[in-house]
Amino acid sequence: MNTRTAKLSLLPFLMFIGLFLGSGVILQIQGIDHPFQQLPGHVAIIPALILAIILHRKSLKESIAVLVKGAGNDNIITMCMIFLLAGAFSSVAEATGGVEAVVNAGLQIIPAGYVLPGLFIIAALISLSMGTSVGTIGALAPVAVGFANQTGTDPTFIAGALFGGAMFGDNLSIISDTTIAATRTQGVEMRDKFRENIKVALPAAIVTVIVFLLISTDAATVDSEQVQWLATVPYLAILVLAVSGMNVFLVLILGIVLAALQGVIMTGYEFSSLGVDISNGFASMFGIFILAMFVGSLAEFIKQQGGLQWIAGKINRMAEKASRNGNRAQQLSIGALAFITDICIANNVVAIVVTGEISRSIALKHNISPKRSASLLDIFACSAQSFIPYGNQALLLSATFVISPWEAVSHNYYGLILFLCAFIFIGFQKRK
C-alpha cells in the first residue's frame, strides 16, 4: 500500500465534511435560518466525488466505474430499499391517523406532576415504533409545547425530555435507519443487534427516567383527545413482527397494509390516496437515499486507494498501545470512529455508513462479535447526535419551542447517560 496515496484518498472525505459543516457554521454566523440545512449532504458530497475522481489518476471511464460500483454495493442498495419502505410506512401511518392515535394513547398514561418522565417514556415508545427521532419530535413537539404552557414546566426541560426519548428509538428501533445501516454494514441480524443494544439503551433509559422523576415538580393534569386504540395496531404489529425475526421487508410492507386498512376502517381514509402517500414517503427519503449511494461511491474510492486500510491500521495501533488485555480498546475505537464522524457531519446514519467497513475489519481482527460492533456503531453515533446543536433534532426542537439549539442539547440527559453507559458496558464485560 502506497502511504501517500492512501492519505490523499481521504482528502475528498475531508472536503465533504468541510463543505457540509463549514457552510453551516458560516451561515449560522450570518443569521440564516436553518443554516445546516441550506447545503444538504447529498449536494455537498458532489465536489468531493469530483476530487476523488481526479485523485484516482485513472481514465474517466475507469473512475466512473468505481463510482458506480460503490453506489451499487449490495449493502448500500439493500439499505436504500429499506429506507424507502420505512418512509412509506411513516407517511401512510401519519395520513391514516396512526401517529395521532399513538400520541393520544401515550398522553392517557401521564400522571399529573410527572410530565418530564412521562413525555420521555412516550417519546421513547413512539420512536421505538416509528424508528425515527425526527419523525417522533415532529409528531410530539406541538403537543409538548402545550405541556409546557399548561403545566408551567420550563420548556427547555420539556424539549430535553422529548429529545432524549426520540433518540432512544432512533438508536434501538428495529426499523430505524441507523439500525438498518449498522446491521447491514456489520452483517448481522437486526434482532441480534437489538438484543445486544438493549443491554445499554434500557439501563440508560431507566436512569434518565429516575433523573426526570427527581427534578419533576407538581403540575396540572395533561388533557388529551379520546384514544382510537385500533389505530395503534400497525405500530405494535411491526414491533412484534420485527422482534420475532420476520424479514424487515415483509415487516414494513405489512405495516403499510395494516396502516392503510385501519385508516379505511377508523378514519374514513380513502384507499385511492394510498399510492400518493407511499410516493410522498419515498420522496421524504430522497436525500438520504442519494447520500447513501454517494457515500458508498466515496468509500469505494478510498478503499481502492488504501485509505480505509491506513485508517484501520492507525486505529488498531492506537488501540493496541492503549490496552493489551482483551479487546476493550478496539471496541472503544469502533465507538470513537462513529462518534467523531457524526460530530463532523451531523448525520448518524451517514456516520455509520462511512465507518461501517473499517469497524467491521477491526471487529473481525479482534474477535468482536458483529452484533457488538453494530451496537457500538449505533450507540456512539446516536450519542454524538445528541450532543450537536446543528443536528436536525436540535434544530427542529429549537424552532418549535423557540429556544436555542444549545438549550435543547444541554437538557438531553439521555444522550449523555447513554454515552456513559456504553463505556461502563465495555469496561465491565467478561474477559475472553
TrEMBL record:
Domain of life: Bacteria
Membrane topology: Multi-pass membrane protein
Keywords for this protein: Antiport, Cell membrane, Membrane, Transmembrane, Transmembrane helix, Transport
Subcellular location: Cell membrane
Keyword field contains Membrane: yes
Domain Na+/H+ antiporter NhaC-like C-terminal per the UniProt entry, residue ranges: 48-214
Segments traversing the membrane: 38-55, 76-93, 105-128, 198-215, 235-261, 282-302, 332-354, 374-391, 411-428
Family membership: Belongs to the NhaC Na(+)/H(+) (TC 2.A.35) antiporter family.
Protein name: Na+/H+ antiporter NhaC-like C-terminal domain-containing protein
Species assigned in the record: Rhodohalobacter sulfatireducens
